[in-house]
Write a structure and sequence with these properties.
Elements (H helix, E strand, L loop, with lengths): L1 E5 L2 H13 L10 E7 L2 E10 L4 E8 L7 H16 L4 E4 L5 H6 L3 E2 L5 E4 L13
Length: 131
């Protein structure tokens, strides 16, 4: 079973160990860490830093390859939904390595070549009719 949720403190440490092994700077502990778990084991993570007027999507990593990006898309959307529910509507991403997935998620580029997304109306209400 695949589940999504906020990272535990232990998972945040584990995520930063992965980042260091990949030669990356550890992520900020003040960030929002959304994780996906397969059979209870960490399978991927998304890191977002919330600022006063916007949120910054820092990175999204799956620990095993996902050829069609479906799991990574759901993981990032889970994190975006969390910040949307918290009231933040503007998202920026400066991580150009995520270009392809950002375009699938409807991010566009601004004048500074950052990827941006406005969450106003992004998560539309269910269109199914209640009986």
């Amino acid at each position: 079973m695949i589940t999504f949720g906020m990272a535990s403190l232990e998972e945040i440490y584990q995520i930063n160990q992965f980042a260091e092994k990949m030669g990356e700077t550890p992520y900020p502990f003040s960030g929002l860490y959304m994780v996906c778990r397969k059979a209870g084991e960490l399978a991927g993570y998304c890191v977002i830093r919330v600022h006063s007027a916007y949120a910054e999507l820092i990175d999204a990593i799956l620990l095993k390859e996902d050829k069609d990006d479906a799991l990574k898309i759901v993981l990032i959307k889970s994190a975006l939904n969390a910040i949307d529910l918290a009231g933040t509507k503007n998202v920026v991403c400066k991580n150009s390595k995520m270009k392809d997935i950002l375009e699938k998620l409807e991010f566009t580029r601004n004048e500074q070549n950052d990827y941006i997304l406005n969450l106003e109306g992004y998560f539309k209400p269910c269109s199914c009719k209640k009986k």
